[in-house]
Amino acid sequence: MTMSAIEFEEPDQGVGDFVLLPEITMDAFVENLKLRFEKRRIYTYIGEVVVSVNPYRELSLYRPEYITSYKGCEFFERPPHIFALAEAAYRTLKQQSSNSCIVISGESGSGKTEASKIILRYIAAVTNVEKQAEIQRISNILIQTNVILETFGNSRTNRNDNSSRFGKYMDLNFDCKFDPIGGKIQHYLLEKSRVVKQQLGERNFHSFYQLLSNKKSLQDYGLYLKPENYYYINQGQCCQVDRIDDRQYYQQVIEAFNIVGFTQDEISIIWKIIAAILHLGNLTFADVDGEHCSIVRVNDQTDPLQWISKLLECEPSDISSALTSRVVAARNEVFQTRQTILRAYYGRDALSK
């Protein structure tokens, strides 16, 4: 796409603002959206709302010349773009000294996560040039935080290879000169059920597969089996996805941990928890007498209970007791009772989640 395409839109590229459609109907709306998408115009306005269609491929819409073209411009001066929205929010902050909020909404696979990254990159690029190094450092931390959140909160679904399975609210903090000085990210509504069960064609959270891709750390966590052999991550029957390089992403996550400021002990603890969950999924129970059960042990280096106790720094007997029995309080009495095999599996899954 040439520079002239940044400045103008051709008549055959559809209407850039749905408000200007000669006929406001669902058919006209969809037809205009389809026409623009075919012309590689993935952004369209509805007034001051930006409608985005995920192209599922790389487009040259975010190069430095695009940032320069939208910097300092009014919302409707340039063709529809997410940069125009970011510029409008930032300009409101500077001119009115009031908070701005950008709400990114859409169904799975629509590109919400990528949109937040694009906005962050734009803000980093248009702020104070003299302090660009410090601003870039802060922005980089926020972007790398996204990498970590995606590893532990995103997964492959039937609609998207990197679908966010949680909600996120991000605050950007600016100083009196309106340069970013920090941020805060809150997450909520994490899809914990995915930890123990996935639909056919879907994967668990990326972190499990990334850990198994790192051969150097496998022995430290007792992960001698292939991803297909771990119950918690094989139910979707798509442990390997051609478009996802788990080994490369694992290295990116380690780098992100270091940039954000995690210590080596903290990083190690996080991966130990991930490994312990994998072992918990392979923990099985045997019925004793119809009302009680016990953990099935394996007499080799892959014994799940032994590795769970090592990774969580607990005694095997304590873990076995916690999973095969429960504490009941009734009439001011507290006593321990054995679990049935069904309840034991429920308890195992609850602990994992």
UniProtKB/TrEMBL annotation:
One of its GO terms (cellular component) is microvillus. InterPro entries: Kinesin_motor_dom_sf (IPR036961), Myosin_head_motor_dom-like (IPR001609), P-loop_NTPase (IPR027417). SUPFAM superfamilies: P-loop containing nucleoside triphosphate hydrolases. GO terms for molecular function: actin filament binding; ATP binding; microfilament motor activity. The keyword Repeat does not apply. It comes from the Eukaryota. Belongs to the TRAFAC class myosin-kinesin ATPase superfamily. Myosin family. ATP binds at residues 106-113. This is Myosin motor domain-containing protein. It comes from Rotaria socialis. GO terms for biological process: actin filament organization; actin filament-based movement; endocytosis. It holds the Pfam family Myosin_head. Keywords: Actin-binding, ATP-binding, Motor protein, Myosin, Nucleotide-binding. The keyword RNA-binding does not apply. Residues 13-353 form the Myosin motor domain.
